[in-house]
């Protein structure tokens, strides 16, 4: 009997030790990020505000998907917002000021205007808020990290696609958007530097349109009527891609004009299938969102970071659009609902 009592006591003590261990493991568990423990507890999440150029395009919905998943992995309180128009830098500046007022520790930002957004970003940084830029840069030395496409290189890829045109003479029309948007200008620079190495190529016309489908369509049709020799058009973002595609469709020129464009949504992919668009330069928008939030987490917790991170682009055409990698990039996330 005495032996049984001791044995029961030992079993009971072992049971209590197990309970304590389980409690400790549960109480001190933290989410893991890239092999490291998150220092944010579920009771007190660090606040991060993501101010995009827009929230409605396919590109920015994909960015949000990446950002949202990273916020969950890092246990961060993430707010994602942007103006209704990709021309509206003033609303962005108001959002920056509001984010500071609301206690954001990091602002992730994509600038509508390289210069006009700079003072608001500098003011935020001066009040102790860390800044991470993705996609579109801002003229500020206060930015901790810049993440996005190597836009010059992406412009060079667009030129390579344009040079696949088999005409003896390549007459080019460039449809770019806001001159104050840094990424569009760098894409055009890369395109120009590459395309003019081809002796067949010349640039017949350059227009800068609003980052809006209807305006891009109207201006492209006007350009084509004024410069009928144009047989290649290059354009540099999602909305101008749609505008150019619709212009080609309405003028019945898909067999006469090669279109090299940027980004993707359900409509532009349809244009790739039917021939209004010949090549899409597709960015890794999901990775931009994910890396932006991951970098914010690292800044909050004192980890070292890179000052520049480039995400990749791929050129998608009718020949490779059904390849697995292209399909993942084209149809990664929510479809755009803007025509």
From TrEMBL:
Domain of life per record: Bacteria
Pfam families on file: Peripla_BP_4
Assigned keywords, A-Z: Signal
Family matches, as Gene3D superfamilies: 3.40.50.2300
Domain annotation Periplasmic binding protein: ranges: 48-302
Span of the signal peptide: none
UniProt subcellular location: Cell envelope
PANTHER family (UniProt xref): D-ALLOSE-BINDING PERIPLASMIC PROTEIN-RELATED
Family of the protein in this entry: Belongs to the bacterial solute-binding protein 2 family.
Name of the protein: Substrate-binding domain-containing protein
């Amino acid at each position: 009997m005495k032996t049984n009592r001791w044995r029961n006591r030992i079993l009971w003590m072992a049971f209590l030790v197990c309970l304590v261990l389980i409690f400790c493991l549960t109480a001190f568990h933290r989410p893991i990020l890239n092999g490291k423990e998150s220092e944010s507890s579920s009771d007190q999440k660090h606040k991060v505000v993501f101010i995009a150029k827009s929230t409605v395009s396919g590109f920015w919905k994909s960015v949000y998907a990446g950002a949202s998943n990273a916020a969950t992995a890092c246990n961060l309180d993430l707010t994602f917002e942007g103006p209704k128009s990709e021309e509206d830098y003033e609303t962005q500046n108001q959002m920056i000021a509001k984010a500071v007022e609301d206690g954001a520790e990091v602002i992730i930002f994509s600038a509508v205007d390289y210069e006009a957004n700079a003072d608001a970003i500098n003011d935020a940084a001066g009040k102790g808020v860390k800044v991470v830029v993705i996609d579109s840069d801002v003229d500020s030395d206060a930015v901790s990290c810049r993440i996005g496409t190597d836009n010059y290189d992406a412009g060079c890829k667009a030129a390579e696609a344009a040079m696949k045109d088999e005409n003896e003479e390549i007459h080019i029309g460039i449809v770019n958007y806001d001159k104050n948007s840094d990424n569009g200008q760098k894409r055009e620079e890369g395109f120009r530097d590459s395309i003019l190495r081809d002796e067949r190529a010349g640039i017949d016309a350059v227009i800068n349109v609003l980052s809006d489908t209807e305006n891009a369509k109207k201006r492209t049709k006007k350009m084509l009527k004024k410069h009928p020799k144009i047989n290649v058009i290059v354009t540099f973002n999602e909305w101008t891609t749609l505008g150019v595609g619709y212009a080609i469709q309405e003028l019945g020129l898909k067999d006469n004009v090669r279109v090299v464009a940027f980004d993707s949504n359900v409509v532009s992919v349809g244009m790739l299938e039917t021939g209004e668009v010949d090549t899409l330069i597709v960015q890794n928008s999901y990775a931009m969102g994910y890396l932006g939030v991951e970098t914010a987490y690292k800044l909050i917790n004192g980890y070292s970071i890179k000052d520049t991170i480039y995400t990749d682009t791929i050129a998608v055409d009718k020949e490779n659009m059904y390849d697995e990698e292209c399909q993942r990039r084209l149809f990664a996330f929510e479809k755009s609902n803007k025509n």
